[in-house]
Design brief:
The protein has about 180 residues and is an all-alpha fold. It is built from 6 helices and no strands. The two termini are about 20 Å apart.
Length: about 180
């Protein structure tokens, strides 16, 4: 309870908001970069270009997706706990929390594994991997999922500024207790 009772002063809140915004911007940029490189994969002229495009996607995944996503989650939790917004007081904060967890889990459980599948197919088959049905279905899964994640990130950015949906209603029994 002591952790939740703590409130940030304005300077600390501003610093934490700046870190949060920079991490979100990195996460959005990384997601957009992954999506664009994913689309570009289909236009590779040779096996080497295909392989290096996938290697670039791996670098983006490691540096502009994983760490910024986790930093976004961490700073968002701190901001919700240490400011007036709370984690479960307002729907917009709760929605952002759920979507953040969802997009991180999609990255961990699916996108990362799918990228490894593509790299393995290119290492085994070279340029002809583009003709492989598993390559094409995995590639399409990455494009659709990255687009969904980008939509979620954009939606979270918009609701941060609009703060829609109002406050979470408390259970009447809890209010009487």
């Amino acid at each position: 309870m002591l952790l939740m009772a703590y409130r940030l002063n304005q300077k600390k809140k501003s610093i934490l908001v700046a870190i949060h915004v920079l991490s979100v911007a990195s996460w959005i940029g990384g997601t957009l970069g992954m999506l664009l490189l994913g689309v570009y994969l289909q236009n590779a002229a040779n096996g080497e270009q295909l392989y290096y495009t996938l290697a670039s996607m791996d670098i983006i995944d490691e540096n502009l997706l994983k760490y910024p996503a986790l930093l976004t989650l961490f700073t968002g939790l701190m901001l919700s706990m240490w400011t007036q917004w709370g984690l479960v007081k307002h729907y917009w904060v709760l929605i952002k929390f759920v979507l953040t967890i969802l997009t991180i889990m999609i990255g961990i459980l699916f996108l990362n594994k799918w990228s490894v599948v593509l790299v393995n197919l290119v290492e085994e088959n070279g340029f002809i991997a583009l003709q492989n049905s598993q390559f094409q279905s995995t590639w399409l899964s990455i494009i659709i999922t990255a687009s969904f994640n980008l939509f979620c990130l954009a939606f979270m950015t918009v609701i941060t500024y609009l703060k829609p949906f109002g406050k979470v209603k408390k259970n009447k029994r809890k209010q009487h207790a």
